TrEMBL record:
Residues 37-147 form the C-type lectin domain. This is C-type lectin domain-containing protein. It comes from the Eukaryota. Keywords: Disulfide bond, Glycoprotein, Lectin. One of its GO terms (molecular function) is carbohydrate binding.
């Protein structure tokens, strides 16, 4: 039996996928709910999900979790989510298994120093909403257990 939370999650997921596919077929460039920055399109999805579930959600709309390659892109993406209660953190496409790697295989050399974490366990990274930077300490990212629930996901696809 589905709990009410799972039913709400499924409704939100269906609505997100439906709107993104419908609007994306009507307009060239970024899919409907996505915002353009440089040559990429980004979208924040509010969803209580583990890292793998967030990645699957992005894949449903032909996207991946975001790989962020500049401080400017980070600032832009940070403005996409509301930053209210439950919206402070979002999964991005950065994982650590002795070294950090973006979803696209590149190194985040502008972002983080390598961790001293030596266990062979993959950890995943969440991004902090830029709207909260003035309210909290200026933490941009947090490395956490991939099975933890985050308040959202940042999906990315190429601008076409």
């Amino acid at each position: 039996m589905f709990s009410l939370l799972k039913i709400d999650l499924m409704k939100n997921l269906f609505f997100f996928v439906f709107c993104t596919i419908l609007i994306g077929t009507l307009y060239a460039g970024c899919p409907g709910n996505f915002a353009k920055f440089d040559n990429n399109c980004y979208h924040y999805v509010k969803i209580q999900a583990e890292h793998a579930e967030a990645q699957e959600l992005c894949e449903l709309v032909n996207a991946t979790l975001a790989s962020i390659h500049s401080k400017e892109a980070q600032k832009f993406i940070g403005t996409l989510f509301k930053g209210g209660p439950g919206d402070e953190w979002a999964w991005i496409g950065l994982t650590e298994n002795l070294v950090f790697k973006w979803e696209d295989g590149s190194n985040p050399n502008w972002l983080l120093s390598q961790s001293s974490f030596q266990e062979k366990v993959t950890r995943c990274v969440q991004m902090w909403s830029s709207k909260n930077w003035k309210l909290q300490q200026k933490i941009d990212y947090i490395v956490s257990d991939c099975k933890a629930k985050s308040g959202g996901a940042i999906c990315q696809t190429e601008f076409s």
